[in-house]
Records
---
Amino acid sequence: MPGRATAGQAVAVRPGDMVGILGGGQLARMLALAGARLGLKSHVFAPEEDSPAFDVAAARTVADYGDEAALARFAETVAVATYEFENVPAATTAFLRERCPVRPDPAALAASQDRLLEKEFINSLGIATAPFAPVEDPGALARAVATLGRPCILKARRFGYDGKGQVLVREGSDLGAAFRSMGGVPAIVEGIVTFACEVSVIAARGADGAFRAYDVCENLHDHHILSVTQVPARLSQEGARAALDIARRIAEALDYVGVVAVEMFVAAPDASTAAAEALIVNEIAPRVHNSGHWTIDGAVTSQFEQHMRAVCGWPLGSTRRLGAIEMRNLIGADVDRWDEILRDKSAKLHLYGKHVSRPGRKMGHVTRLRLDLTG
Amino acid sequence: MPGRATAGQAVAVRPGDMVGILGGGQLARMLALAGARLGLKSHVFAPEEDSPAFDVAAARTVADYGDEAALARFAETVAVATYEFENVPAATTAFLRERCPVRPDPAALAASQDRLLEKEFINSLGIATAPFAPVEDPGALARAVATLGRPCILKARRFGYDGKGQVLVREGSDLGAAFRSMGGVPAIVEGIVTFACEVSVIAARGADGAFRAYDVCENLHDHHILSVTQVPARLSQEGARAALDIARRIAEALDYVGVVAVEMFVAAPDASTAAAEALIVNEIAPRVHNSGHWTIDGAVTSQFEQHMRAVCGWPLGSTRRLGAIEMRNLIGADVDRWDEILRDKSAKLHLYGKHVSRPGRKMGHVTRLRLDLTG
C-alpha cells in the first residue's frame, strides 16, 4: 500500500510508507525516531559508513550524493524524500525530483546555501539583515570594509556552518591575507550587529499552507557553536510576535513545506522609544534545527515529528510548550558526563550514538523542563 | 569501547554499546527507540521476517528461538540481552546466559510463564490471588469446580495472553468438553473475583536494588484485550500505597532487574469498614507492559527508557507523572482513524509499523494528557 507519487503530484504518504532522508547525522537520526513513532519507515542516504542515523533506519544507503545509480534506487523505495542539511548538492535534488517527491522544495535550499542570495531574498521581503557586500576580489573587499567599518566579518558564501569559513576583520587585519584565507571561493563581508540576544524561530508549514511556530528560542553560542537554548526567550510580546511573523513571511515566500528555522539577532532596545525590539535575520535553515531540540521533551509535538508530518502531507501538530525549558548541547568531552546526567532527576539525556568525541563535535544534548520535577 | 561482561559479572554497558532484545513486536520496537535516545544500539532477535522492531534496530537476526548458532552470534554482539515477552523458551535463556548477561534473570520468566507457579509464588509472599486449583485430569477439574463454584475459569498454565487458552465454566457447562478444549496441556481453574476495577503497577528495579514505581494505572479491557489505561487510578491513597508495596515485594523476592508489571484486581470496597481496598494479584509480566505505554508522553522517564537503564546497570530515572493521562489502544481497524487522530490537538499518536491490521491485533495507541492542550 505504498503511497508514492511522482514529482509535481500531491504527496499521499500513509503510515507504513518509507520516507527518504538525505544525510545521516543526529538530525536524520531524530527524524527517523520521530517517524517510527508515527509508523513510518526511514531510508537514510549518507556517504559515511558510521552515520548515526543508520542505527535507527529501516533501510540504509552508503553512497556519495553524486552517485546517480544509488540515488535512483533510493528514490524507488521512498514515498517522499527530505534532508537533514541545507548543503545537499543542487544536482542531487534535481536528480531526485524527477523520481520522487522532494520536500521541502529544493528552491528553499538554493536560497539558504548562498549567504549573498539568502540576504538578498530576506531583504526583498522587507526584513532586515546585517549590512553586507559581495566580495569577488581584494579590491571589493577593501571597498566593503571601508563602507561597513571594522570590525566586520568575511564569510564564504557557501558551505559555512558552526563558524567555519569565517574570518574576523579587525583594526589592523591584513585584508590580503584575509582574502587569501577564503581560498578563492565567492565571499561576502557582513557588518557586525550589536545585539542584546540571539533568538531563533522554529516553525513549520504544511502542504496545505498551514503555518505553526514554536515559542521563540533564545540561544547562547560558544565558539560559534550553539551551547544553550532557553524558552521562552527574553523578548517582549510584541517582539515575539514580530519574530514569528518574520518566520511566517519567509516560509510563505518560499512556498515552504516542512520545518524551517530562522536565526535572528535582537538589537539592544532603544530606551528612548517604546518600540518593540528590532529583529535582524542572520540565517535561514531549511530543516530541523539544533535550537529546536527542546521540543522533543518540551512541546506537544517535536520539531522532528512536525517535519515528518509536513513532508508527508499530514496535518501539523500542536506546538504548545509544556513549561519553561533549557536545552544544553553536549559538545566533545561533555558527553563523558553521561552517567552523572542520568542521575539528575530533572534532566533528559539524548545521545546521538557517535563513536568518537572530538572537540566541537555535537555528541548529544540535555533538556531540563524547569518545573518541580523531583521525585 | 564495548562494555561486555560475561554472565555472573557486573554488567558495565556504555552508550554506543549494543543491547540485545528477544522478540520483535511493538514492545521491542519501543525499547529500541528508547535505547536509541540514550545512544544505545539494539540487536533485535525474532523469528518473523516482518517484525516491527526490525525497522528501528541497528542489527537484526531472523531466526527461531531454538537456533543455537544464531543465538551464539547474537550473544557475541551484545553487552546485555533482554526480552519483550515472558514466553521465551527456558532453553533459549539458559543458552544465552552462558554467553552474555541476560536481564531480568530468566528465573523471573519461569515464575511468570506458568500460572500455577506464579500464583504459588505470589501467595508465598503473603499476597492474595484469586482462589485456584491445578487440573491434570477431568476428575481434578470436577473437584476444583465443585470447590471454587461456578462460574470459574479453566486456563492453560502456560502461553496464555489476551484471553487465549481460557474457557469460562458456567452453570451447565460440559466439564469434559472444557477439559478437552485445553488440548491436554496442564491447566488450572481460577475462581471468579468480583472487582470494582482492574489496576496495574509498572515498576522498575535497578541492578543496585533501587526501586521506582509509576503511579497506579487503571485498566479497562474489551474482549480480554487492554482497551484503555487511565492514570491516576480511582484508588484511595492507602490502596495505591499498598499496590506499589506489592510490586516492590514481588520485584525484591525475584531479585528483579528491569521493568515489571503487576496486574491486580481491586475488590469492591466493603462499606462497613474503613479499610483500604483489597488487592488481588492477577498476573506478573516480567517486562514492559501495555498499561505503561502512557509513560512515553506522560512521565519524565518512559517505561522503555527505564527498562533500558535498569538492564544496562544505569541509575533509574524519575517516574514522575506530568498530568492526568489516558492511553487508548488502537486495535485492528481502529488504526484506520490515524489521520483523524493526527488532527486532534490533544492526542499523541503511536503506530507500530505493522503492515496488516487484523481483529484483535494491537496496531498502535493514542495518549491524551488531560490538560488544556489546545493551541
Note: Chain A has a mean pLDDT of 92.
---
Amino acid sequence: MEQEDPDVYVHVVEKREDGIVVRGAKVSQSGAIGSHETLVIATMGMRQGEEDFAVAFAVPNGTEGLTYICQYTPFTAERELSPDVKYLGNPLYGQRETCIMVFDNVFIPWEHVFMCGEAKYSGRLVARFAKTHRMNCGGACKVGFADLIIGATQLAAEFSGVQKAPHIVEKMTDMIRINETARACTIAAALKGHEEPAGSGFFQPDDIFGNAAKLTIADGFWDILKWAGDIGGGMAVTMPSELELENPETAHYVRKFMKASAPAEQRLRIAKFIQNWCAGLHGAGTWHGAGSPMAQKMALYALTNFEEKKSLARSLAGLREE
Amino acid sequence: MEQEDPDVYVHVVEKREDGIVVRGAKVSQSGAIGSHETLVIATMGMRQGEEDFAVAFAVPNGTEGLTYICQYTPFTAERELSPDVKYLGNPLYGQRETCIMVFDNVFIPWEHVFMCGEAKYSGRLVARFAKTHRMNCGGACKVGFADLIIGATQLAAEFSGVQKAPHIVEKMTDMIRINETARACTIAAALKGHEEPAGSGFFQPDDIFGNAAKLTIADGFWDILKWAGDIGGGMAVTMPSELELENPETAHYVRKFMKASAPAEQRLRIAKFIQNWCAGLHGAGTWHGAGSPMAQKMALYALTNFEEKKSLARSLAGLREE
Amino acid sequence: MEQEDPDVYVHVVEKREDGIVVRGAKVSQSGAIGSHETLVIATMGMRQGEEDFAVAFAVPNGTEGLTYICQYTPFTAERELSPDVKYLGNPLYGQRETCIMVFDNVFIPWEHVFMCGEAKYSGRLVARFAKTHRMNCGGACKVGFADLIIGATQLAAEFSGVQKAPHIVEKMTDMIRINETARACTIAAALKGHEEPAGSGFFQPDDIFGNAAKLTIADGFWDILKWAGDIGGGMAVTMPSELELENPETAHYVRKFMKASAPAEQRLRIAKFIQNWCAGLHGAGTWHGAGSPMAQKMALYALTNFEEKKSLARSLAGLREE
Amino acid sequence: MEQEDPDVYVHVVEKREDGIVVRGAKVSQSGAIGSHETLVIATMGMRQGEEDFAVAFAVPNGTEGLTYICQYTPFTAERELSPDVKYLGNPLYGQRETCIMVFDNVFIPWEHVFMCGEAKYSGRLVARFAKTHRMNCGGACKVGFADLIIGATQLAAEFSGVQKAPHIVEKMTDMIRINETARACTIAAALKGHEEPAGSGFFQPDDIFGNAAKLTIADGFWDILKWAGDIGGGMAVTMPSELELENPETAHYVRKFMKASAPAEQRLRIAKFIQNWCAGLHGAGTWHGAGSPMAQKMALYALTNFEEKKSLARSLAGLREE
C-alpha cells in the first residue's frame, strides 16, 4: 500500500481514551446518504506496519467532520425538473444515490469501533464481506432487477403486438435463461454455505458459487439490458415526454401516433421504465458493484483445486504422477 | 398493410394542380429538427391498392401543418440545468435530438415530389436507402464513435495508472478488434459496390457486407460500451459533478480524493465523457438505427445463395444432384 | 404424430395373454449395447388415438428380434488398429458407443411392461424423464467431463511452461467459471427439487434450474473445448502417434523435439487426451444429449411466470392493471 | 532465445563453398509431406548473436538428412481401414496431413538460400509472412471451408425437413453473418494493401484488417462448427457407417429408420461430411493456423494509433493536451 497521500484510505490519526479519530475517504458509497448509520471496514487486507488502516467502525449520518459528496448525473437533473415522480422511469426505486464519504477528523467512540490495528485479521474481514456481497449484490440483487426488466420488456412487446414473433420469444428466453442461471448460482452459494468459523453459528456463502454468480451477472445483466433495448425498440431512447399528453398542442398527435396494441399512455410509461435500465446507470454499475469482474476472476482461479483436477486427468490418461 | 388508422403512415390525401397534400407521421427522426429540409420516403414497399402511401418528397422545416414533437430524456434535463456545456459529457455532439414529425395536411409542391403512386418502385427505393444506411449508420458512423470511446477509455486507464495491466490491455484489444472488424465490413461494402442500375453512374454498397457491418456493430457497439464502463470504473456512473471543483466546501476534497495518475479535473472530465456513452442513449439507439437487427438478419438470409453452397457441399461429399 | 411409416416409433403390434409384441426403433441410444437391460419409454406425449405408441417397458440385451446397429466413427477405426488402449486419447472411458436399437416384433412379458395404452400419462412420463436427464446429462455429467478437461489443459500449459502467462490464466479462469456455473445450476436444481406427486416420496429436480443447467453447458461445454484446443496448442491436432517413441528411426527425434517443460512422452499423452475432447464426438454430442437446446428453451419459456413479472414491472412503473 | 537445446530451431551448422548445412526441426508443417519443395524461414525475429538462426531457404522433399514424422489421428486410422474413400466424410480434401520436418545436417546449395545471417532483417521477413498468412489462412481459407459447411448444414436441415423452423433459420443466418464478416475483413485487408517497400511492386495486405480477419474467424469458425453440429443433429456424431447399407442384415433397417425428407443414403453421406468438421481436426487447428489468437491480439494492440484516438476524445471532451 505504497501511496503518496495517506488520507486516501480511511485510517486512525489519534487514539483517545474514549475513542478514535479517523481521516480519509470512501468513494462510491451507494445509498450511504440515506442511511442512519454506515458500517466502515478496511478496503483491503492490511500488512504489518499498516495497523492504522486496519480499522472498522460504525458512524451515524450527521457526525461532525463527515461530508457526503453526492453523485450528479442526467438522472439527478431530470428528477429536479420533473413536476411529478410518476414521469420518471423508475419513480420509487430509481434514485440510487452514490456518494463520496469524507472523514475529516471524525471521532468514533470505542463502543462503535470493531477493529483497530488488528492488521492480520483485516484481510479475512474484507474477504468475508466480499463473499456475502458477491452472492447478494452480484447474484440476488440483479436477479430481482432482471425480473422487473423481463416483465417490462414482455409488456412492451405485448403493447406493440409482437410478443409472439419467434425472434422476440427467443430473446425473451435468453433473458430468462441468464437470470435463472444467476439465480441458481446464488441459491447454490447460499445452500452450500459453510459455518465459519466452525461452531460459531455464522454461515458464509460458498465462495466459488458466489463468484460464479457475480461473473454470470456481470456479463449477463449487460446482455439482459441489450435485449430490453432491442425489444423495447427505438422508442425507449427516442420517446417524447409523457407530459406531452397534457400539452394541448401535441397530446392528440402523441395519443394517435404512439398507440399500438395498447394506448399511448401505457406504451410511454413502460418505455420510460425500460429507458431507465437500458440507457441508465445500472449497467455499468453492475460491473463494479461487489468489486470489478477481474477481482472475481482472480478469486475463482485462486479457489480452484487444480491439483485434484490434474490428478484426475493424469489418472484417466494413464500418466503416472511424477 | 392492414392498419386501422391510415394516418399512421404518411400518405397522399389530395392531389392538386400545384402539388400534393400529405398526412401521417414519421417517428424516431434523429436530427430532423435541426435540418433545413427533410427527405421523406415510404416506410416499406407498397403493394397495389396502396398507391397513396407510395410517396417520396422533400419538405422544409417550418412548413405549415408540420409539427415536431421532440424527445425528452434525462440528458435533455441535464442540458437545461447546466450552467455551461463543458460540464456535459459530450458537449458539442452529444445532443442527438430525435423527434416525431407530424404531417397534418402538409402541402408539397410538385417540384419537391419524387414519387407519388408508383407502388411497384417503392420497395426498391426503400431497399436502396437501407443499403446505404446500413453501411453508413451501422458501419462507418459507429466506427467513428468507437474511435472516440476507445481513445477516452485508454485515457481513463492511463489517468488511473492501470493501462498496462494485462486484463486492461486485453479489453482494449477486444474493443479495437470489434471496431476494426466493423470498419472492414464497411470498407468491403463500399469497395465491392455495384452500379445500380448498370450504366447509371450511381453506385450502391454491396448489400451482404453492409448488412454484416450493421450486425457486427449491433452487438459489437454494445460490447464496446461494456468495456468502456468496465475500464472507466465505477467512477463513470457514480462521480460527482465537475461543478464541485468550484464549490468551496467540497472542492479540496474532490481534488484530493479523485486524483490518481492525473488531476481530478481531467479524471472527472473524461469519466463524464465515458458516462455519456456507457450510460447514455446511443447503446440502445444503435440496435435500431438503420432498422432492427432482425431486419438485417432477414436480408442476409434472403441474399445468400444457398444453392451454390449446397452444390459445393454435395460435390465434395460425392453426393450427386437430384 | 402424422407419420407415413408407423414403425419409426416403437409401438405395440400385438397384445397377448402373457405380454406384448413391439415394433419400431430407438435411435441414438448411447451405451445401450453395453447394458444388461434397457428401459424404453415413449418418445413424446401421445394423444388419443395413439395408444399403441404410449408404451414403456424393460428389455434385456439379446432378446429375440432386437438388433443393435452401432455407430462407426474415426475413433472406432483408431481403436481397432491400436496395439494397446494406452495409445488412445481417453482409453478407459472414451468409448461412448451409440447405436440404433431396432425392435422387429420383440416380445415383452407383462411383468416388464410399465405402460401400455395410457396415452394421457405418457407426456408426464417423458417430462419427468427429461427433468432428471437435463439436470444430470446437461449439468452434472458434463461438469465432471470438464473437470478432467480443465485438469488436462492446466497440465498441458505446465508441460509447455506457459501456465503463468496472463492470457492462459484468463482462459483457464473462464473454463472454471463456466463449469462452476453449470455445477451451481445442477445443485440448485437438486436442492430445490419437489416431491412429485406430493406424498409419494419421489423427488424431481426443479425444472427451471435443470433447463438452465443444460443450456449453460450446451454453449459452455463448447467454449471449454475451444479453450482446451487453444491452450493445448496446435499439438493436440497435429501430433504424431505416441508409437513413434518406439520407432527406432524417429524416437530420438520425437523425444528431442516434443520435449518442453516435460518429457515428450508426457506431452504426447496429455495432448492425445485433449485431442479426444477438442476434436472428438462429445462437443456436438453435448448439444443433443437430453434433447436439443431448442427443447430446453421452449421449456424455459413455458415455465416462466410472465404474469408475475409483468405485474411487478407495472407496479413499479405506476401502471395500474387493466 | 535462451534455449537449452540449439537444435530446436533450424540453424546453420556449417557454411561451405557450395552451400550451407542446417540442423533443427519445424513442427506442425501442414501439407509439407505432399509438396515438391518447402520454403523454410526463421520462426521469429532474431537478434545479434543469433545469426545462425537467421536463415531462409528452399528444400526439395527427399533431400538427404530430411525426415518427415507425420501426424496420426483417428482420421488416419479410419482412412486406412476404409474400403473406399467415399465412406470418409471429406474424401477428396479431408486429408490434412501435418508433420514434423527434421533437418539432420541437411545440405542446402547457395542458390536455394535466401537469408543466411542477416539477423536484423529476419523479424521483417517473419512479419511479412504473417501478414499474408493471417489474411489468407485466417480469412480466405476458412471462409471457403465455411461456405461448404453452411451448404452441408442447409442440406442436412432440408433432408430432415426442418429448414423453415425459425430457430434453424436464425442459426443459419448467424453462420452466414460470421462468414461474410470474415470475408469482408479479408477483402478489406487485400484492397487496403500497401506497396512494401514503396516502389517495389510488391503489395502486402493491410495488417490491421488481416489480424481482424484471423481473430473474427478464430472464434467464428468454432461457432460455425457449433451450429453445424446443432443443426446436423445427434446423427452427425452417432450415425452408423454408410457401409451398413451394404450389410444384408441391417441395410433394410438403416434405410427405413434413417429416412426422413431424403433417403438414408443421402442423409448419412451429408451427416458424415458434417461429422468431419464438427468432430474433426479443423476446429482446434483454426486457432493456431497463422499463429495463436494471442499473437494477433498483440499485433492489433501494437498497430493501434492510440495517440490519435486519445486526441480525438480529448478534443471532444474539451480537455486540452498536456
Note: The two ends of chain D are 40 Å apart (CA to CA).
